[in-house]
Structures are given as C-alpha cells and as structure tokens.
Amino acid sequence: MSAAQLGRRWPWIGLLCFFAAAWFALGAVSASELSLLVLAFYYGLAGSSFSFLYGTVGIFSLAQPVFLAVGGYTGVYLYTQYGISPWLSILISMALAALLALPMGFLALFRGGTIMTALVTLIVAEAVPPILAAIKPLGGSVGLYLNLQPGSNLAAMQFSGALPFARLFLLGNVAVIGFFMLFKRSRFGLWAAASRDSPAAAGACGVPVLRIRLAIFVGSSMIAALAGLVYAQYNLLVNADLFLGATTLFQVVVVALVGGAARPWGALVGAILVTELSYYLTQAASGRPGISPLTFAGVFLVIAILAPRGLSGTWERWATARIRRGPRRPAAAATVPGPPSAGAPDRAAQAEPTADVEREHRR
User: Which residue(s) pair with 158 in the sheet?
Assistant: First the structure.
C-alpha cells in the first residue's frame, strides 16, 4: 500500500478503531459516568447537525432545537397514540423534519446572507414553544410521557439501563462522522465548499448554489430529528423545555464550534470535553445551579480566543504543519582542511613561481 493510499484510509481506520474501543469501554464504566456519556453523545449528534450545515456551506442556523423537538414529539406521540415502534418512527420523524425544513430553508436562504438566515431561523425557534403549548394532543405545556415497560423492551426502545442508549448514540455519531467524511470528498461536497467560499463564482461555473444549500439544510434537520427521538426515549418524556429551553440552542452551537464545526469529529470532541468539564465543575461547586451554562460559555470564550478553528481544527493544522516539516536533519559537519593527499598538487608551491615571474616582469 502506497503512502497516498494509507493517508486516505487512516481516517477510516481511526474511526473504526474508536468505535470498537468505545463500544466495549462503555460496558466497563460506572452508571453515573454512563449517564454523562449519554448526554455527551446526544450533544455530539445534535451538534453534528449544526456542523454539517455550518461547516459545509457556512449557514448559521438557529433552528436546530426545532428539529430536535420534531424527532422527540414524533416518536413519543406515535407510540403512545398508535403503538408505532420508535424504530419505525425514526424514518417518519426524519421525513417530517425534512418537510418542515424545506419551506423554512427556502425562506431563509432565498435572500442569502448570514444575518437573514439567523433571523428567520431564530423567529421560528421562538415561535414553536407557544404553538406546542396550544396543541392539546401533544400534551400542551406539560408534554407527553411514556409508560415505562418492565425490563427491557427492544420494540419500544426502552431498556433497563443507560448502556444501550449510550451505544445507540455512539453508533449515530460514528455514522454521521463517516457520512460527513464521504460527503466532503464527493462532488456535492466540492460544490458545497465552492458555494460557501464564493457563491457568485460557483454560480457562474454552473453550481446550483441554492439547491445545494437547501439540500444540506434539509439533511441537517434530519440528523437533528434522529438525535431528538432517541433522547426523548431515553428520558421517557417530551416537552418544550427538553428541546426548546433557553440553553439548548446555546449548548448545541457551542459544542460544534468548540470542537471545530468544519471537521467531522468536531462536534463529538467538543461535546465530550464541555460536558465532562461542566459535570466536574458542578460537582466541585456542590451542585449549584447555573454552573453548566457558565462552563459552556467559558469554554467557548477560551477556545474562540486561543483556537478559533476549534480543537479538531487546531490539532489538524498542527499535525499537517509537522508532517510538512518532516523529521529534523542533523547539521552538516564542519569541514576541517587536512594535509594534501599524495596525488594532490601543492597549491602554495604552485603559487610561489607565479609570484616570482611577476616580480621579474616588473623589473
């Protein structure tokens, strides 16, 4: 295998090794740490939906919690009202999220511009909670609750412990990371990069800029719906506070930006770091409220100042620069003139007759 082929394959090898190691390591951690990892993997998957949108085409959407809620409400409602398994509801919730994202994305992206997109998506995110509170079949302001089945019920996506949910979220993160890696190398990924860097030039070259952006907006909503459905099953409830609270949007965006929104691994790295740090700081503060949002904000400010590319982007830049420099070469040894060899002419002796001839010529 050549060095170029190995360079293309090592990210996939690393991804598979991480998945296998994490899968078995989850079975050895404590119950409290496992619950924390479920939360970290949830934020990683939710943050990946934002990373896929912002990292590929530069769209700063603030509507990701809305799609999380679509996934959560769809799974719980269909199971409690019609007995539809949450595994089947995954496809249904992703389809509903896509249907909702299509007009929203068209409205936000038709005029273009970061401010317009952020404004439209923020208005939608703020309008959804009162709408949900007015819909009685969805539980109103209280929400919907799942009836806990005894033991583990695979069809109902209910388990006796947090380990299956941790592994399910791990599988979702790895699948999204792999898809992100494939997308960046595909033709559509190159079109998306061109649409992000220079929309006018990309359009002049025949790239369907609006359709590419709209398709990625819809795809990111489907990823968020998947994360929301599994998280609702884990909590056995769904309401506006679970997905549309004041800090949910901030946390989803922060984990993506801290880890590096333009990198496939970014959201997962940022989620694990910030969630673990927030937990231990809250424990050190004796569980005082408000420590978790402050931790998210503090880590975001530090990373924004010291590593604007995020953790994964800074690491990739450092590793690339180190590979290009290559290993250090030893300094060349100083050359010390030695005695002339037997076959070498004596330059000093050759120079003396020349000086004598010049003196004779001057005389």
Answer: 153
Look at the block and give the residue holding tokens 């503090």: 298
Q: What share of the chain is helix, strand, coil (3-state, %, to 5)?
A: 75, 0, 25
Domain coordinates of the chain in residue numbers?
A: 24-325
The structure tokens 């809305």 sit at 66
> What mean pLDDT, rounded, does the chain reach?
84
Structure-derived torsion over alpha carbons of residues 238, 275, 22, 183, reported in degrees to the nearest 10: 80
How many CB atoms sit inside 10 A of residue 316's CB? 17
Q: Distance between CA atoms of 322 and 326, rounded to whole angstroms?
A: 6
Report whether 257 contacts 300 (CB < 8 A). Answer: yes
Task: Give residue 151's region: left, alpha or beta (phi > 0; psi -120 to 50).
Answer: left
In the predicted model, is pLDDT for residue 37 greater than 80?
yes
Identify the residue whose tokens are 């409830």.
237
Residue 33 structure tokens? 């740490």
Contact residues for 310 (Cβ-Cβ < 8 A; gap 6+):
257, 258, 259, 260, 261, 262, 263, 266, 270, 303
Give the global pTM. 0.84
Q: What angle do CA 187, 189, 195 make, to 5 degrees?
A: 105
DSSP string, 268-321: HHHHHHHHHHHHHHHHHTTT-TTHHHHHHHHHHHHHHHH-TTHHHHHHHHHHHH
Give the separation between CA 348 and CA 340, rounded to whole angstroms. Answer: 11
Reference 89, options 221, 233, 218, 220; nearest CA is 233
pLDDT tens digits for range 81-98: 999 999 999 999 999 999
Q: Which run of H or E residues covers position 72?
A: helix 64-82
